[in-house]
Amino acid sequence: MLPDGSLKGCKRIKGCEVMPSIVVVGIQWGDEGKGKMIDLLSKQADHIVRAQGGNNAGHTIKIGEEEYRFHLIPSGILYPHTKCYIAGGTVIDPEVLLKEINGLETKSISVKGRLFISPYAHVILPYHRELDKLYESLKGDSAIGTTGRGIGPCYVDKANRMGIRIGDLIQPEALEKQLKMNLSFKNKELQQVFGQPSLNFEKIYNAYVSYGKQLESFVSQVENTVAVELKKNAAVLFEGAHGTFLDITFGTYPFVTSSSTIAAGVCAGAGVGPTQIDHVLGVVKAYTTRVGNGPFPTALSTEEETTFLDHAAAREIATTTGRKRRMGWFDAVLARYGARLNGTSSLAVTKLDVLDHLEKIKICREYKVKGNILEIPPAQIQDFEEIEPIYEELPGWKCTTKDIKKWEDLPKNAQKYLARIEELCETPISIVSVGPERDRTLIIPKIIQELGFGL
Fold this sequence. Notes:
The chain is an alpha/beta fold.
């Protein structure tokens, strides 16, 4: 990306200038500000692809005084020139998707001919939502803290080869056959395991036939279209959902989501080979947050919380659930390993402005577990819970960064703080965000040019 926001100049093949393909992923536990990065990059992108997760994800975009909240539709839809895709690796609640489509239409943002849904994507049904909540309640103190939106049970059915896909949803006969079989299993589970009433086939079937009719015009061979556009060297942006350490394999298991959230998972969910990706942009906050349950080594102490901004001022209330996020110091052990797992090309650091008022700022550079020093996170959750973070302390800058437009105009201590993040994460910073608005963004021209985003 050039200082004017252009994406031109990336070299997919050495010596041949073409428009780039970029994967945007979160390097922490989600909520890093990926939505804003997607929004910025979408200005010059032709196509934006959502590849995994469901409406348990959320992006908030602020344009002027208007705020837009996205759960399934790529936030790049706000640019009238873009085409947006929901690929086969996602799971879709059709009722939620239709509400999102209608919400955009009421704000005069047309999605007709611009939004496309893969027939391979799986469908969330009422029994998925019901079972999601019941499983959580059964776990008691071991509950993961899911959103209760049915994402996990839907992915379970996908792996169990009894899922219903978008391609089935738009064919009433196929939907009827699969739904009848599924309900025969799910109703037994609801009744015999949880003592809950069975779900009514006719009610669900009629509702979902209606959803299918409303969504049918959006369904197309998304993965093939994206492959063709990549071959033409079109600018394709892949929008990751959640964060690296919510990955079903490499996250803080079992306190994770139900899909692969790393760059390779985005490729798999979009049906795109890794050779087609030019750049992986890893998004991190200038500190760390986590929503829901699970380990959080650098969480603020009670005393430290009094010096931090409150949740509203720090914009740390979750888009999807409305829950307050836990806040903590920047965890370089986590972020460095996240950058490695994703093959991150550069970092976008968001919400630097939240730290503006602090006298001292901590960075966790290593973990100590049972007397051993670790420079990567442990695999086992029981070890994660015994982590003693090893901090280094940096001086704050005690002034606002919100109106700064250039790296060289940042306070010296802010520059030193960001440079230390680069060093510890072994990855250059290409973008710094100092507020939710589009124009509160610093592009680092030197780094971007070195990475091949323009000359």
